[in-house]
Amino acid sequence: MSFDDDVDDQKKKFLAARLEPEQVILATEAFADKLSLEIQSKRLKFDYEFDNEDGPRVSVLYATAPFHIGTVYVQGNGSIAFTSESEYFPQVVAYEDEEEFFKDAKEFFVEGLAAFELDEEEDSYEA
């Protein structure tokens, strides 16, 4: 096979792996449930949301305070993206699949939540 044939074959694989918009919605809903099962915590809340501009997503919230940790997106190719505007969590991280996400996410949620809670405790002592 030529290089161009390899590129054409890879394009076919990418197309076969793409999710239709309805499938992305269902996959995102299922991922929100899976997040709650995989990362069982009294500190975190995972809410499925649908926005007409951004589409389906999972908001990651601090359960006992009004603190938005970040947003998880299931992409049309099955990959997972996490975004955050918080100083405690990575700004943008992309993963090939759920398994890769869960390996990394538990670690950055633990580290970020610990730092956030310590800062909150220090702020309450100073007040």
Written description of the protein model:
The chain is of the alpha+beta class and 127 residues long. It has one domain. The chain has 3 helices and 5 strands; from the N terminus they run ααβββββα. The chain has helices spanning 3-17, 21-38, 98-126; strands spanning 44-51, 55-62, 67-74, 80-83, 92-95. The chain has a 5-stranded antiparallel beta sheet. The longest helix is centred in the C-terminal third of the chain and has 29 residues, at 98-126. The chain is elongated, with a radius of gyration of 18 Å. The model has no long low-confidence stretch (mean pLDDT 89).
Question: How many separate domains?
Answer: 1
Main sheet overview: 5 strands, antiparallel
Summed over residues and divided by their number, the pLDDT gives a mean of: 89
How would you write the strand order of the largest sheet? 1-2-3-4-5
- The portion of residues assigned to helices is 40-55%
Q: Number of helical segments? A: 3
* Classification by helices and strands: alpha+beta
Q: Oligomerization state of this entry?
A: single chain
Pick out the low-confidence regions.
none
Give the overall form: elongated
Number of strand elements: 5
**Proportion in β-strands:** 25-35%
Please tell me how large the radius of gyration is. Answer: 18 Å
- For the record, give the distance between the C-alpha atoms at the N and C termini, rounded to a whole number: 70 Å
Listing every helix as H and every strand as E from the N terminus to the C terminus, the arrangement reads HHEEEEEH
